[in-house]
């Protein structure tokens, strides 16, 4: 149920990955030839090392990173829940991207995973070919290894599909004998991903003591992929791009939503059998390595396999002069959290406005650090009176390393880690968790018109989080509840930007708008909460961005590859 990554080194060749796993990155690569490759696959230990190495793909996206942006929570900062604090290139690159759609072009894709994704896909295709043609492993072990390979291949293709829609499908090593390859339709790409995941689900174990992919992980990813394909089929309708290969037939939306619901049901059945469960303590999910919410995760262990999430997001006094505060929650996210009784929070409510952080729902306190919050033995002061942790206007300095919204991230920080500057961090990255499965089921069922079942799963999650039950009688009510729950429950887990894209709502919510924070100042009787812009300029999301261009150099190198229309 977890994924322990044995190496973070980039796969350079078939044997390069093996020797990196054994010795690290500073190796001389052995020339690749048939005899050496056969020897690798004839050795069960070598085969095991190679297969374990393909899971490094998940590290590229851990803690909401995007490969070419390189900062935790970068994907949330592309949407409305997080504001990056810097306005200079580097950790301020996200702000540059969201402020001007023209930053995206075929020469500078903005979100570029093409070369990295296809490198991984080739190595997996080499692996599958080697396992089946050159190894002396048992047939059963071959099937499990191929299932693992196809699980990771599906993950890589899913990212390519989310970015570009129509991409090249490499299904086997036979295709690599030709230099030039055409794009497949977006519909064919999603069908291939689902085919890979069905194979993985059919052949992966229910439990994996080695800490890799399981049936539950394959079905969860299948449920996620089916939901995306169904959403594009329902909402895109060729409104935003006239490329003949992008888009999915609206007639297939119900089919994809059913695939999603059926896959989610498989995971729910596993949970009913005791394998997974919603955690009683939302805050502890992300630091508890034994949580039953985790379906697939990336684990870390000091001193060799660590990360720097705490260094990037802890409030300044956690390690004064060292914390980086890459990003902070927006007021738009903070306002989304309900009151403890399940009613909506509103600044127009006089009682709530006087004490805006009192009697909020449990997930608020587990996600947001706010003015007056208790954190690591101190009370946070995010008002204008604190020169270290208090509010500063965005743009007042290039890299302020403090809040520009009046808030700090709480979710996924380790409250016990006081030495993260020296020793870094080891909390797991949960790529897939059970709460998402319930939200997928609720959405898929709502889209299929089964509002009773959608209500059941929304309420199962809400009640575990200490909130009241809802009654959802139609698609509008159900989808509003799904969007709210996904925004709150999955905050800082890298979903929001992609949700808005698949629902084709990004151009409505992320364009021509400035997101905000709360400038908190003392007055004669208490505190004043002033809504202030956290953006220097209006954000920009053109409908062209629903399908990002293929990197121009790839089009130039591949004679059969055409650019996405409109770019």
Reconstruct the topology from this structure.
Layout: E1 3-4, H1 14-23, H2 34-42, H3 44-53, H4 74-77, E2 82-84, H5 93-99, H6 114-134, H7 139-164, H8 186-203, H9 215-235, H10 253-272, E3 294-299, H11 309-313, E4 327-329, H12 331-334, H13 350-354, H14 362-367, E5 368-369, E6 374-375, E7 378-379, E8 408-409, H15 420-423, E9 429-433, H16 434-447, H17 451-464, H18 475-489, H19 496-502, H20 506-509, E10 516-522, E11 527-533, H21 552-557
Parallel strand pairs: 1-3
Antiparallel strand pairs: 2-4, 3-9, 5-8, 6-7, 10-11
Helix pairs in contact: 1-3, 6-7, 7-8, 7-9, 8-9, 9-10, 9-16, 10-16, 16-17, 16-18, 17-18
What's the quick description here?
This protein is mostly helical and 567 residues long. The chain has helices at 14-23, 34-42, 44-53, 74-77, 93-99, 114-134, 139-164, 186-203, 215-235, 253-272, 309-313, 331-334, 350-354, 362-367, 420-423, 434-447, 451-464, 475-489, 496-502, 506-509, 552-557, and strands at 3-4, 82-84, 294-299, 327-329, 368-369, 374-375, 378-379, 408-409, 429-433, 516-522, 527-533.
């Amino acid at each position: 149920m977890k994924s322990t990554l044995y190496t973070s080194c980039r796969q350079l060749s078939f044997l390069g990955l093996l020797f990196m796993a054994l010795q690290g990155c500073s190796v001389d690569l052995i020339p690749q030839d048939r005899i050496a490759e056969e020897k690798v696959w004839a050795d069960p230990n070598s085969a095991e090392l190679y297969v374990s190495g393909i899971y490094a793909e998940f590290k590229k996206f851990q803690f909401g990173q995007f490969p070419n942006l390189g900062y935790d929570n970068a994907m949330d900062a592309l949407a409305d829940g997080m504001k990056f604090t810097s306005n200079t290139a580097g950790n301020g690159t996200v702000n540059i991207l969201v402020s001007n759609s023209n930053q995206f072009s075929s020469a500078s894709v903005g979100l570029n995973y093409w070369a990295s994704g296809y490198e991984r896909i080739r190595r997996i295709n080499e692996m599958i070919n080697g396992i089946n043609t050159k190894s002396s492993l048992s047939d059963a072990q071959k099937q499990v290894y191929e299932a693992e390979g196809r699980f990771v291949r599906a993950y890589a293709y899913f990212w390519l599909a989310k970015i570009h829609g129509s991409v090249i499908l490499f299904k086997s090593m036979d295709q690599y004998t030709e230099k030039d390859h055409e794009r497949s339709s977006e519909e064919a790409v999603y069908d291939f991903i689902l085919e890979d995941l069905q194979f993985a689900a059919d052949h992966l174990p229910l439990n994996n003591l080695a800490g890799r992919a399981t049936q539950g992980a394959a079905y969860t990813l299948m449920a996620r992929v089916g939901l995306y394909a169904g959403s594009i089929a329902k909402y895109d309708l060729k409104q935003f791009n006239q490329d003949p290969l992008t888009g999915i037939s609206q007639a297939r939306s119900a089919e994809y939503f059913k695939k999603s619901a059926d896959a989610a049901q498989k995971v729910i059945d596993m949970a009913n059998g005791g394998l997974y469960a919603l955690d009683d303590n939302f805050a502890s999910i992300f630091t508890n390595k034994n949580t039953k919410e985790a379906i697939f995760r990336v684990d870390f262990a000091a001193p060799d396999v660590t990360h720097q999430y705490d260094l990037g997001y802890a409030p300044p006094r956690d390690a004064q002069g060292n914390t980086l505060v890459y990003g902070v929650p927006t007021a738009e996210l903070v306002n989304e959290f309900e009151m403890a009784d399940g009613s909506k929070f509103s600044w127009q409510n006089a009682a709530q406005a006087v004490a805006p952080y009192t009697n909020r729902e449990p997930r608020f306190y587990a996600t947001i650090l706010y003015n007056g919050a208790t954190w690591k033995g101190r009370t946070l002061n995010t008002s204008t009176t604190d020169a270290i942790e208090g509010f500063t206007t965005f743009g007042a300095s290039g890299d302020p390393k403090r809040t520009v919204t009046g808030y700090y991230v709480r979710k996924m920080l380790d409250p016990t880690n006081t030495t993260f500057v020296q020793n870094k961090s080891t909390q797991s990255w949960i790529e897939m968790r059970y709460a998402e499965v319930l939200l997928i089921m609720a959405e898929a069922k709502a889209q299929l018109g089964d509002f009773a079942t959608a209500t059941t799963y929304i309420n199962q999650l809400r009640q575990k989080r200490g909130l009241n039950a809802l009654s959802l009688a139609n698609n509008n009510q159900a989808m509003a509840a799904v969007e709210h729950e996904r925004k709150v429950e999955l905050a800082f887990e890298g979903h929001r930007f992609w949700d808005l894209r698949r629902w084709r709502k990004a151009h409505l919510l992320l364009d021509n708008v400035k997101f905000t924070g709360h400038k908190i100042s003392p007055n004669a009787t208490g505190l004043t909460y002033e809504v202030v812009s956290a953006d220097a300029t209006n954000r920009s999301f053109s409908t062209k961005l629903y399908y990002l261009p293929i990197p121009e150099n790839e089009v130039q190198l591949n004679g059969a590859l055409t650019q996405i229309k409109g770019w």
